[in-house]
Write a structure and sequence with these properties.
Layout (H helix, E strand, L loop, with lengths): L1 H13 L14 E6 L3 E3 L6 E9 L5 E2 L6 E6 L25 E4 L4 E2 L4 E8 L8 E11 L11 E7 L3
Parallel strand pairs: 2-10
Antiparallel strand pairs: 1-3, 3-8, 4-7, 5-6, 5-9, 9-10
């Protein structure tokens, strides 16, 4: 029983689904910009959104390694991250997971360089007209810890039938 409890505590520590804490040592970022807010019309064709972050830490972000950084899903409170998206139906099946919008496009992002994250969306067939807000932040993929919580968000306005 003690072993199971210790394993559960370790899992929660490594993969938190709660408010974001301090940055991962050596990892830091700064929001640099994104494509304009999008509109959707109820068509099933995927559209894209691109967001840029500077690697302001001391460690290179290397795709498919223990130093990879991803754009993770956050809730409306902008601090509860690494959670399943309540808007996953918008993913067009093109997000890496229910918890991640996108991985970095570049193989390596050195400190001081820009990282590009492009994610896809489409309006689901049963969606109603309105504004839909997608919250996210950068996450250290290996640990699930947030890199530098900034409260990134993207608004999609849907003029849907």
């Amino acid at each position: 029983m003690k072993v199971l409890f210790a394993a559960a505590l370790l899992f929660v520590a490594l993969f938190p689904a709660g408010p974001a804490d301090a940055a991962v040592p050596g990892f830091d970022s700064q929001y640099a910009g994104e494509s304009s807010f999008q509109s959707a019309s109820g068509t099933p064709e995927p559209q894209t959104n691109t967001v840029l972050f500077f690697n302001t830490g001391t460690v290179p972000w290397i795709k498919h390694t223990a130093s990879e950084v991803v754009l993770a899903v956050c809730l409306d409170d902008k601090v509860t991250c690494n959670v399943e998206s309540p808007l996953y139906a918008w993913s067009a099946g093109l997000w890496p997971s229910r918890r991640v919008y996108a991985t970095q496009l570049q193989q390596v992002v050195q400190p001081g360089q820009l990282a590009t994250f492009t994610w896809f969306f489409h309006s689901p067939p049963d969606v109603v007209s309105g504004q839909y807000v997608f919250h996210g932040d950068l996450m250290h993929a290996a640990t699930g810890a947030m890199v530098h919580p900034e409260g990134y968000f993207h608004i999609i306005t849907c003029s849907c039938p």
